[in-house]
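Example pasted here:
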Amino acid sequence: MTESYRFVLFTLLAGVLALPAVGSDAADSAPQSAVTTQQKETAASPAVVIYTLSTCPHCAEAKAYLTKQGIPFTNREVDTDDDHMAELMKIYDGMKVPNERRGVPLFVIGGKTRLQGFDKAKLEEAIKTEAGK
């Protein structure tokens, strides 16, 4: 192992160790991000998964809206994660959506309801419907 390689490895490791621990007191006082790992579904709030592009303004608007409304969600960026893109294509295949009509954001609510595009009224209705089941 070369000396420069050791330095780079040490620097990376030191940076990782310097990150605040999840669940620490400092993390508890900061507002929690709505973009988290898999959310658990509850009777009051069904699990909401949103498939997005990191550069999509409609996706950013949808995530900001969910955050502002206090609706927990899981964000899956399809342009930065090949597995998320594969999931999205599988969902669209199941919905029988032609390739030229596929887009983001795509919401999956309660693991069942799929909603393409961002429409506040339709999204709220879908969440209420799934929460009532």
Summary: Strands lie at 48-52, 74-77, 106-109, 113-116. The first strand starts at residue 48 and ends at 52.
